[in-house]
Design a protein that fits this description.
The chain is mainly alpha-helical. Among the domains are: 11-155, Actin-binding Protein, T-fimbrin, domain 1, CATH 1.10.418.60; 179-297. It is built from 8 helices and no strands. Helix 1 crosses helix 6 and helix 7 packs antiparallel against helix 8. It starts with 10 loop residues before the first helix and ends with a helix. 5% of the residues are buried. Keywords: Cell cycle, Cell division, Centromere, Chromosome, Coiled coil, Kinetochore, Mitosis, Nucleus. InterPro entries: Kinetochore_Nuf2_N, Nuf2_N_sf. GO terms for molecular function: protein-containing complex binding. It comes from Pipra filicauda.
């Protein structure tokens, strides 16, 4: 059982498809169902195959009748009748596997069968329809690609123009390059000085902070030592209290000494706390100094931007001044041109007035000449009408003589045909007469020979008795 990869069309569908997609003009109008179904006509089928190959592969009609160049044949005249069929089979054998038909044979061209022909045409028409559909899609894609390519080229051109404009904006004009260089150098020098000052202040602050930190650490160490000493003294005091058996005066003196030592310790503690607070204030001031340095840096950046803006403004001012100078020069030149043009206009107007007078005179002359030419043309037209009538009369006479000549030619042809028929009939009668004469001559000769033989026999018989007597 055969597997079909395409639908099999009905005879009417095949005929309509061939008329619309394959054949054109009189070929499509003259195609009928009996040309392909029942007993297919070879010339019609070969024509359909050739038109399909022309449509699909763009093969010209003369290629079917040309001998291949790569084939060496002694007598190519032998293949004159078979060459178109052979070329058609070769091309169809290349086309039909594309249409999913793999059993095409030379017999399908020389002696086609209806069922196989219907199957072949169904596959071919299905492929032609699919080809037309995909061709439309491909053409749309090609059109979209062309538009996209044009758009891409336009965008590239716009991008190049923008890059050129950006490069033009980024490049400094030659007349302002020296000034811009000086400004950039001065800005760099200022930035260098600010950086050096900032670094110097930062290093000094860092040194002061490290020194203060060392002092704070030393004072805290001393404070801790004093605290330890006070603790040890309190312990010794407690121990001594229990051991004291001294006089109250010594005890009072000792207490006063202890009070003085406590006052000293408190005083030293207050000094240490004051130093600590001053150092802490310095440490707290450090971020504000850093912020101030950052503010100075931002101010320097703003100053640089302002310098650049000032340079651009100065360049714009110079451009505007140059433009104004050039505009004033142009205005002066335009005024001088205007005066000269006014003089030219007055001169041209005077010349135009003289030329108009000349043109008016020439128009009058032309009108007069036109009237004379029209009169002459009317006379010529009358003469032409008379000549035309004569020519028409002569033409009619020529037509009549032509008709007479054609009638005479027809009569002469008829007479010649009659003479030819009479000649042929006379020739046939003469041949019959010749044949009858030949027959009579032959019969006369035979009878003459018989008579001569009889006479000879009679003479012999007459001579024989006389001799014996």
């Amino acid at each position: 059982m055969e597997t079909m990869t395409f639908p099999r069309y009905s005879p009417d569908e095949i005929i309509n498809s061939l008329r619309t997609y394959v054949l054109t003009g009189a070929e499509g109008r003259n195609l009928v169902k009996s040309d392909l179904f029942g007993t297919p006509k070879l010339d019609v089928l070969h024509l359909i195959y050739m038109r399909i190959l022309q449509k699909v592969y763009a093969i010209n009609l003369e290629h079917f009748y040309v001998m291949p160049v790569n084939v060496d044949i002694m007598y190519p005249q032998i293949y004159d009748g078979f060459l178109p069929v052979c070329n058609l089979y070769i091309h169809m054998e290349r086309l039909l596997p594309v249409c999913r038909i793999n059993d095409f044979q030379i017999a399908d061209i020389l002696n086609p069968k209806t069922k196989r022909t219907v199957r072949f045409l169904s596959g071919i028409l299905n492929f032609v329809n699919f080809r037309e559909f995909r061709r439309q899609v491909y053409l749309e894609l090609q059109l979209n690609y062309k538009t996209a390519l044009e758009k891409h080229q336009q965008l590239e051109a716009a991008n190049r123009e923008a890059a050129m404009k950006l490069e033009k904006l980024n490049t400094v004009p030659a007349e302002h390059q020296e000034e811009v260089k000086q400004l950039t150098e001065s800005i760099r020098d200022l930035e260098h000085l600010l950086r050096q000052d900032y670094r110097r202040k930062q290093t000094a602050l860092q040194e002061v902070i490290s020194q203060k930190k060392m002092d704070i650490a030393e004072s805290t160490r001393k404070l801790n030592d004093l605290k330890v000493a006070m603790a040890t003294l309190k312990e010794e005091q407690e121990q001594l209290k229990s051991k004291i058996v001294e006089s109250p005066e010594e005890l009072k003196n000792y207490k006063e000494q202890m009070k003085e030592t406590v006052k000293k310790l408190k005083k030293s503690k207050e000094e240490i706390t004051q130093k600590y607070e001053s150092y802490r204030d310095l440490v707290e001031i450090l971020p504000s100094c850093q912020l101030e340095v950052q503010l100075y840096k931002k101010k320097m950046e703003r100053q640089g931007a302002n310098v650049e803006r000032l340079a651009s403004v100065l360049s714009e001012v110079r451009n505007i001044e140059d433009q104004s100078d050039s505009a004033q020069i142009e205005l002066k030149r335009v005024k001088t041109d205007e005066m000269s043009l006014k003089r030219l206009v007055t001169a041209k107007r005077e010349a135009l007035a003289t030329i108009e007078l000349k043109i008016q005179k020439k128009r009058e002359d032309v009108e007069q000449h036109k009237c004379t030419v029209l009169e002459y043309c009317n006379k010529v037209q009358e003469k032409r009408g008379a000549v035309y009538d004569k020519v028409m009369a002569i033409h009619k006479e020529i037509q009549q003589t032509r008709y007479k000549i054609e009638e005479l030619k027809d009569n002469a042809g008829k007479e010649a045909m009659k003479a030819k028929e009479i000649h042929l009939s006379l020739k046939a009668a003469l041949e019959k007469c010749h044949e009858s004469l030949i027959k009579t001559a032959k019969s006369f000769e035979a009878s003459r020979k018989e008579r001569i033989a009889e006479l000879k026999k009679g003479l012999l018989s007459i001579q024989s008795p006389g001799s014996s007597h």
